[in-house]
Specification:
277 residues; alpha+beta
């Protein structure tokens, strides 16, 4: 597979520099080409004027106008614009990636078996953000941040074709694991998965997590801080597209019956509700 042969680290570093550069007319031309190629709907942006963005990153992480993503009356809302890769029940500790491929919850969270144990027989959702999508990430429900774990890894593409071809993809790529505690739903995890040419991942409480890219697992604990984010609030962003993987403990979520793999999704739509007894 060509993914194994690509100089992914070099491509990612180069893309990050280009995306962060303030190149005047060249930057505007790149943004205009990107909007035309991917059919980006600039009418939804707070600032629809392509020529006003000083860097590609500024354009790529543009905020949306208020009201264009209303929040559903549901216990859990979809945290991103994108498409469903897979979702469902965790099979013991196994998360379904694509036909023939699985990875474990322990692998996903960077080897912490005690953290992963909360989600044994729980639920997961792998959501893919394509280049055209809005790239800020929001909260599916209220949550208090307890931990953040940076896990170094590969930088394979995370598009659906690659997900079908690379074993354990989301547990092999670089990722940022964000652990929350919900007063209503207990612990849950939002994992930002890196990919080829994803220049960086950032959270609202930390800022840019990478680069630099640490060679080992790094952890931040927030037990003594009261970092609380409400349902629908921004929690992070990607600089270029990627995937988010969420974990919930058993008995927490019954997914939207309209959801299906490869279905398009939008921020704010119903992701699911708590099972009713």
């Amino acid at each position: 597979m060509p993914q194994y042969l690509l100089p992914k680290q070099a491509l990612t570093t180069f893309a990050g520099r280009v995306a962060g550069a303030k190149g005047g007319a060249m930057t505007t031309g790149l943004i205009r080409w990107f909007v035309d190629k991917y059919g980006v709907n600039m009418d939804e942006a707070v600032n629809p004027d392509i020529e006003s963005y000083t860097s590609f990153n500024e354009f790529f992480t543009r905020p949306l106008r208020e009201g264009v993503r209303p929040l559903a009356d549901a216990d859990f809302i979809c945290p991103v614009d994108g498409a469903i890769s897979q979702f469902g029940e965790v099979d013991d500790h196994q998360i379904f990636q694509a036909k023939g491929h699985k990875f474990t919850t322990t692998q996903l969270v960077g080897g912490d078996a005690s953290l992963a144990a909360h989600f044994q027989h729980g639920s997961f959702a792998n959501l893919y953000l394509s280049p055209k999508d809005y790239h800020r990430l929001h909260m599916p429900c209220d949550g208090r941040l307890t931990r953040m774990i940076y896990v170094p890894g590969a930088l394979f593409s995370v598009n659906p074709t690659t997900a079908r071809g690379i074993p354990g993809l989301f547990a092999r790529n670089e990722r940022v694991v964000c652990v929350f505690e919900s007063p209503e739903h207990g612990p849950f995890v939002m994992t930002l998965v890196g990919a080829t040419i994803v220049g960086s991942m950032a959270t609202v409480w930390h800022g840019v997590v990478n680069p630099p890219r640490a060679p080992k697992v790094c952890e931040w604990r927030y037990d003594d801080e009261n970092i609380v984010l409400k349902k629908g609030e921004e929690m992070g962003r990607f600089l270029l597209g990627s995937t988010i993987v969420m974990l919930f403990k058993p008995g927490t979520i019954k997914f939207n019956p309209d959801w299906a793999p490869e279905r398009g999704i939008r921020l704010g739509e119903m992701m699911g509700n708590r099972p009713r007894q």
